[in-house]
Amino acid sequence: MSETIQDIVILGTGPAGLQAAIHSARKGLKVLVLGKNDKSSLWWAHIENFCCTLEISGEQILKTGQIQAESFGAVFFNEDVLSIVPPDLMSPDGNVFTINTETKVFKTKSIIICTGTTRNKLGVPGEKELFGKGVSYCVECDGNFFRGEEVAVVGGESAAAGGALHLTHLASKTHLVAKKFSIAPELMQRLKDAGIIIHEGVDVKEITGGIGVDGLVLDDGSKLDVTGVFIELGAKGVMSLAAELGTSLDESMKFIETDKQQRTNVPGIFAAGDICGPPLQMAKAVGEGCVAGLAAAKFVNRSK
Hints:
Elements: E1 5-11, H1 15-25, E2 31-34, E3 46-47, E4 56-57, H2 58-71, E5 75-77, E6 81-85, E7 97-101, E8 105-113, E9 135-136, H3 139-142, E10 150-154, H4 158-167, E11 173-178, H5 185-193, E12 197-200, E13 204-209, E14 213-218, E15 223-224, E16 228-231, H6 238-245, E17 269-271, H7 282-303
Helix pairs in contact: 1-2, 1-7
């Protein structure tokens, strides 16, 4: 567990997160950036419409941005977030958020959410038809509907692992399915110790059901008799974050609402980039990251 309370923790290593890190770290604050930069949608892109640059690879931009942020004192930790616990005003720490990653626990006075909005889908039969009838993309939002039932989480990264751990407190039996897992060994051991049934090396072939989900068919021919399927392919999405933190979403329920200072409705939480809505462009993400970084720094300095 990290004993040091961070001033600002930034979720996401895309252009919004990097710019927020640069501007907040330059204020002399303790800034921690969580995420995996090769998971950013920009990593594989080629940029030709960003001001003052000719064609450049997204990978080059992200690597350079991290070097810049580190030069001002920002620290990067290459893990995604499993869960976030809002402040307990009765605790000795006071108005401090607790962030659990795959292997560490961090505490922070402020959070800047820059995780993007992509919610990857499986693209298998039954997924679309049974959405809302047992198929979900948010464990925190819908897990309570499956108390005492058998469920499955699909995904091999931190969001899926965190979701599976959460469901062990609700479901009678929890399965975790992935072709390949990309999580820390310590986290894998936690999953096993929690009694989660691991299905590695298989893909989902079909989600079955009528008025509700009644099974998950795997490509090895086996079928899991589950009533709930939670698809968690990647880092935590906007719905999961909103459910945990209480941040307001826009009418489409796809994006976090912020004001002109990139503040959310929750004191100490800011957001920037694609997670705040279109246009989904790097130029917008960088600008919002700048504003969020400065605003979060101001918030932290006021609270000292």
